[in-house]
Queue: 2 jobs
Job 1
Amino acid sequence: MTRDDVRNAVIGILTDIAPDEDFDALKDEEKLRDQFDLDSMDFLDIVMELRKRYNIEVPEADYEQLVTMTSCIDYLQPLLKNQQMAS
Amino acid sequence: MKYDAIILGAGLSGLAAGIRLACFDKKVCIVEKHVEIGGLNSFYQMKDRWFDVGLHAMTNYSPKGVRSSPLGKLLKQLRFKHEDFQLCQQKESEISFPGVSLRFSNDFELFRQEISEKFPNQIDGFDQLTQRIRDHDDLSLKSGFLSSRSVLAEYLTEPKLAEMLFCPLMFYGNPQADDMDFTQFTIMFKAIFLEGFAKPLGGMRHILKLMVDKYKSYGGELRLGRAVKSLNLSSEEVNSVTLSKGEELQAETVISSIGYAETMRLCAPEKFPEDSLQDGEISFVESQYVLNVQPSEIGYDKSIVFFNTKDEFSYRKPKEMVDLASGIVCCANNFDYPKEQEGLIRFTFLANPDLWFGLSRTEYKEAKSYWQKKTLEAVVGFLPDFRDSVVFLDTFTPKTIKKFTGHANGAVYGSPVKIRDGKTPVKNLFICGTDQGFLGIIGATLSGVTVANIYGLKASY
Ligand SMILES: Cc1cc2nc3c(=O)[nH]c(=O)nc-3n(C[C@H](O)[C@H](O)[C@H](O)COP(=O)(O)OP(=O)(O)OC[C@H]3O[C@@H](n4cnc5c(N)ncnc54)[C@H](O)[C@@H]3O)c2cc1C
């Protein structure tokens, strides 16, 4: 996966978790929590969906890496580089 | 084969926990003693009519799009849409005490207005109390008791107003006699006054079916009509559970919704001392009356009325079999249903479980019809007399609740001691639902979600 693929993968997960939010306007450098109505249960779901769809483990200590879209991509791309997008 | 998790009980909390775990590919089995799902909030059929066991109304109503409320949280966590639940909001409810009543609805302003009219010198204190409640973190998993009576006394100088606030909040979610833990008070205040009531079209049967279908669609297993007989421990862990027909299932983690004391009593060979296990004793009798008229046609238009006929409100195990001094009247028709439903009024009174359990079969039958009459008389004292319109009637008692849900004493809200963090002395055994402490339909469901998240999902790293 390229950085763009990883971004799309994260957007795909966010859209499933929060179907009422509009992620087109997402600003990559700003905290996800400040832009959308997400709580700790949602962040758990992001992690669980990453595991379910791409078989990667994000330990609790690393949750803080998921704070902005850019930090998500920085953290996830090395883990996902050998994978294809899930449909 | 070993399950990732076995869940005791297919009530709302057990099903919710099951959905969360199965959704993320855990191998889960829910074991339910009864042949039907739902537990304290199930449904049954009698003479071609479907009845809800526990449902007066769902508390915690919040509109579509709100994600941070308890209802919003559980919808998103269980991947339901708001419209899936088909919620119909209440019209108007009331707290009725001698000489004064307070109306409330899903618009908090009505309640505030009522208080400022009937207790003009209390409204500032009430506003401050409301602010304190809004700021209180009631989803915290820390335990500890703070007396609501003492907190309320800081804000309200009129004891009657405090009693009037306690009446619905205790009836709908207090496992304890006389006083109430302040966190529990906050949960119930938000659930009833700041959020409000709604009923699902199709009753609990509709909600439970949605949940069980979702659970099964994720591959979750359900064993109905099988009680867990023992939780088999070795070196402080539970390794397997034995079912009523002798079958033994292995599990990494066990989550139980059957009550804390009820769960610990199943542990073997190690025994937990009885004095560490405290049963609840708040239970109810409830009657449902089917009418051949709409209650509004005979002049009754309230959704739910919490009434008390004495100056003081007493919330404890009564000395007599039933306490007629206070209770709840719920009229299913006075909710915003899209179409007319058959007339249905139900009322609920505090009951003394010991006295009900002590009866022989014939005595029990007699007592049931005696108290049926008495409660009806008490209610038609302030409701339009609907006795000529009754076409069907059913009553249940603490004995019925115990029989169908296994909760000791038929205690609807479980033990007065809650295990907020869900932990037990056994490393991989956790409590959800009633005795974890989030009560009611929405509370129990959120409890299942929370406990599954912490001990079933996060623990897998
Ligand atoms: C009369 C009444 C009125 C109510 N009214 C309302 C209301 O209007 N609004 C509201 O929000 N809430 C109401 N409630 C409360 C609400 O029903 C409960 O808080 C909620 O259903 C609790 O769910 P739970 O999952 O924690 O427990 P339960 O529903 O009790 O689930 C436990 C399950 O475990 C099963 N079980 C027990 N022992 C075993 C065993 N050994 N092995 C296997 N399974 C076992 C039981 O059969 C049960 O199905 C009412 C309850 C009652 C009884």
Job 2
Amino acid sequence: MSEPSTPTALLSVRGLRKSFGSNVVLNDVSLEIEPGQCVALIGASGSGKSTLLRCINLLEQVDDGVIELAGRDIADPRVDADQVRSRMGIVFQAYNLFPHLSVLDNVTLAPRRVHKVARAEAEKRSMTMLERVGLADKAKARPDDLSGGQQQRVAIARAMVNSPELLLLDEVTSALDPELVGEVLDLLRDLRAEGMTMILSTHEMGFARNVADSVCFLDAGRILEAGPPAEVLGDPQQERTRQFLSRLAS
Amino acid sequence: MPLGPAPSASPPDPSDEPWSPSQTELERRAFRQSRTKRSAVISAVSTIVVGGLVIWLVTRSAGWPRVQTTFFSWDKAVESFPAVLKGLWLNIRIMLICGVAIVVLGLTLAIMRTLRGPIFFPLRLFATVYVDLFRGLPLLLLLLLLGLGVPALRLPGVTISLAFWGGVAIVLSYSAYVAEVFRAGIESVHPSQRAASRALGLSHGQTLRHVVLPQAVRRVMPPLMNDFVSLQKDSGLIAVLGVTDAIQAARIETASDFNYTPYVVAGVLFICLTIPTARLTDHIAKKQGWHGAGGTL
Ligand SMILES: Nc1ncnc2c1ncn2[C@@H]1O[C@H](COP(=O)(O)OP(=O)(O)OP(=O)(O)O)[C@@H](O)[C@H]1O
Ligand SMILES: [Mg+2]
């Protein structure tokens, strides 16, 4: 974990370790992502995908390792975590919308309170974002009154509204019907085309293959295999990866 | 592009490899530790400065020597201590017995208030009236009414123990408060939890017992403990009935020489009684953290 990161990398994770009690969830995880790239994390349930994304967002205190965002180690306790987080967007597997706020207020909360954008401007931006995810007509609704897929799209709008440098997406399509999966994936593809840097955990191998620049296969807290989708998904070197992929295919 | 670690031949089992923190991590830990130490020092220094200032201001005041002899006489404190402590034992018993009764009654009332359906209307009405009535009456008034009124009726077979009726007054008043705390807890459990439980085939009662109440009780534990601390102090109010609790014992001790030190002794004893509860509350609140509210991440 001592070798320096590629100077152009937006995010560089080296030797990351995270445990809950005696359960080592992430062990010596390293990955790098250049601006505008899209990295897909794949792996079985419980392999540590969500935990990795939460560590990158500084929601978990890591046991060891370096997380460099634009060349600066953000795992360092001297770093202002709020400031770092305001530069990233994260969409949780369980959405985590605020049930006491309307859809629009969920989206405008951070621009108004963190970035001090005036209300009118924040609402204009948020409405644009909601239109983009096809939910402008639900702006006044409460999250509880929305379907799972609609909540998921609000969560994406909420993460996107601040134009983050890095977008973390945790299984954003797992709760959606195939039609909506297509819609959300199209949205992500557009974002990708606009140069948004993203790390996403996914079970959609097709999406990983078509959109991601690289795929990381996580198994029991380690990155067993990483590389371009054609290599990792098309011609996996590890027995475990082959096993995982063949189970998915069948 | 991402760089994984050099692929190893077999899938490694993380748990059987020894791990020692890197230099970076050791340095981070040292920093966290030094920051913890720094905050400890700052809080100690500010406490000493503020405390010292207060003591200095008080002891400098003109009336201090007189106050010192009438409120802080060591000899008087030692002399009155056994009597006050004996009185405190009554407070402790009242508070424990009342505490149990309050929780049982409060929970029952709360459940009555959350019952749905027209047949339960009388129960709901009863619970609502009960809460409105006993929460609205000042505890002191309730104590005087029950403690002086009921024994005066000389009902056959009904105890005239003042401590008993004082305890009843406390239970009536506190159970009304505690019922509202429980009700708030029950209603704060998300409807989806009920739905999930009913979907599994659990009845309304089973849902309440196995799904809603466990979450509700955990959530309202801190405010409940707060009410318990309050109860510990308010058990001293039965002194107005002339029952020899800690406060009454202190009053008796002051009567001979108008030295008020016994009140201070009683005050200190009450504080000693409530501090463990207060710390327990903090501990419970901290342990629950934000998991208390449930939800997934
Ligand atoms: N807060 C926590 N406390 C204790 N253990 C945890 C915690 N969060 C996660 N874990 C454990 O960490 C491991 C990895 O969990 P994680 O949520 O990262 O898996 P995942 O790869 O996202 O799985 P899935 O595909 O099902 O979402 C699991 O074994 C889980 O039990
Ligand atoms: Mg997950």
